């Protein structure tokens, strides 16, 4: 294995230097064996940051890396197909089907649309006898590729959930994985995204707007630059910065549902996608592990909502006109996460809830009782 190369601290983008934010790296092989130090590391990352790299170089992760490459080949074949073939079923539901470019608000808000097309295949659908996926996939034998990818992603995200349950000292039915069973209806989905060059989409269809994910955990693969995050806390919290693709690693984001399930102790990751190189086709694969539809949470507004209800409400917010989104900034699309400096009349950054100090106390408390 070649030695790891540290990413730069800043990169040139749109005529200025933009930060490249660091991420903790969690070893999947160690997490699978519930190594205590690795369990502490992943818990701390979720409490303090809401994101981390997942290293899949071990023998346990090789299967997923292979499935990722096969899925990328499938994506190239699918997205090069005529629009009629891609859109055979249209958008069957909010978590199943094809979305053309420009279905949502773009990376820069007012007046822009997104710059990607997307194929979504739900875990529930792929488990059925004859899943509704376009014939261009079924007839080419690519259905098995999707089944393998969803199976691998599902296993990996369940291992992470189990480690977090252990780290939080949860037992029995209260363990997170017990609200994410495969045989119960959920909106768990594999999403395949193709970002088009700006000379194809034009200047008004750009990237993917700032948001938190409608998920418990998101397992994200992309070999190309473009993902930006806003770190929690006060350090640099006002500025979106890139995270570097890391060979053999996936990005993992904490989504809204896990933040709610943890009693707001865990962070949700605020992120967006922008065209780093506007001339390239960019491909990313995201597995959104979501809680069973009838799982009950207390959301950021103090409401009792089910996972299914939260998904449907937030999906509608994503597809609302940008003018409507601007009337309620951050509340739904950011999962209730406040951006630093938002409520401070002095203009100084303010910490998210929970602050890093609170997160450290949670880690300390969990370690003492483990």
UniProtKB/TrEMBL annotation:
UniProt keyword Cytoplasm, yes or no: no
Query: Which molecular-function annotations from GO does this UniProt entry contain?
Result: metal ion binding; oxidoreductase activity
Query: Keyword set for this entry?
Result: Iron, Metal-binding, Oxidoreductase
Q: Does the keyword Oxidoreductase apply?
A: yes
- Which segments of the protein form a coiled coil according to its record? none
Q: Give the matching InterPro entries.
A: DIOX_N, IPNS-like_FE2OG_OXY, IPNS-like_sf, Iron_ascorbate_oxido_reductase, Oxoglu/Fe-dep_dioxygenase_dom
Q: Which SUPFAM superfamilies match?
A: Clavaminate synthase-like
Q: Which residues form the Fe2OG dioxygenase domain?
A: 185-291
| One annotated GO biological process | small molecule biosynthetic process
Q: Which family does it belong to?
A: Belongs to the iron/ascorbate-dependent oxidoreductase family.
Cite the PANTHER family for this sequence: 2-OXOGLUTARATE (2OG) AND FE(II)-DEPENDENT OXYGENASE SUPERFAMILY PROTEIN-RELATED (PTHR47990)
Protein name in the entry:
Clavaminate synthase-like protein
Classification of source organism: Eukaryota, Fungi, Dikarya, Ascomycota, Pezizomycotina
């Amino acid at each position: 294995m070649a030695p790891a190369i540290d990413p730069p601290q800043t990169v040139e983008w749109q005529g200025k230097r933009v930060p490249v934010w660091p991420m903790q790296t969690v070893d999947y092989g160690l997490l699978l064996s519930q190594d205590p130090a690795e369990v502490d590391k992943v818990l701390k990352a979720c409490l303090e940051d809401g994101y981390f790299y997942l290293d899949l170089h071990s023998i346990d992760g090789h299967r997923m890396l292979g499935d990722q490459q096969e899925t990328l080949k499938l994506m190239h074949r699918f997205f090069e197909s005529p629009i009629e073939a891609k859109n055979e079923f249209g958008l069957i539901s909010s978590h199943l089907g094809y979305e053309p470019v420009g279905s949502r608000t773009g990376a820069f808000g007012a007046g822009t649309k997104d710059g990607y097309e997307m194929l979504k295949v739900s875990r529930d659908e792929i488990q059925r006898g004859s899943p509704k996926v376009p014939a261009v996939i079924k007839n080419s034998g690519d259905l098995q590729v999707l089944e393998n990818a969803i199976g691998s992603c599902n296993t990996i995200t369940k291992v992470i959930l189990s480690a977090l349950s252990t780290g939080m000292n949860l037992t029995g039915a209260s363990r997170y994985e017990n609200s994410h069973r495969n045989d119960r209806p959920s909106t768990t989905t594999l999403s395949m995204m193709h970002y088009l060059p700006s000379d194809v989409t034009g200047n008004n269809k750009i990237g993917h707007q700032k948001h938190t994910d409608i998920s418990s955990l998101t397992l994200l693969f992309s070999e190309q630059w473009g993902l930006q995050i806003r770190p929690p806390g006060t350090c640099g919290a006002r500025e979106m910065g890139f995270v570097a693709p890391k060979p053999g690693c996936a990005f993992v984001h904490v989504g809204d549902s896990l933040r709610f399930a943890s009693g707001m102790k865990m962070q949700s990751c605020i992120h967006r996608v922008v065209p780093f190189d506007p001339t390239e086709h960019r491909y990313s694969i995201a597995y959104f592990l979501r809680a069973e539809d009838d799982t009950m949470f207390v959301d950021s507004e103090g409401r009792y909502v089910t996972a299914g209800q939260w998904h449907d409400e937030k999906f509608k917010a994503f597809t609302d006109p940008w003018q409507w989104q601007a009337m309620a900034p951050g509340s739904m699309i950011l999962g209730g996460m406040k951006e630093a400096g938002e409520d401070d009349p002095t203009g100084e950054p303010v910490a998210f809830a929970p602050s890093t100090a609170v997160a450290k106390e949670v880690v300390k408390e969990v370690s003492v009782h483990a």
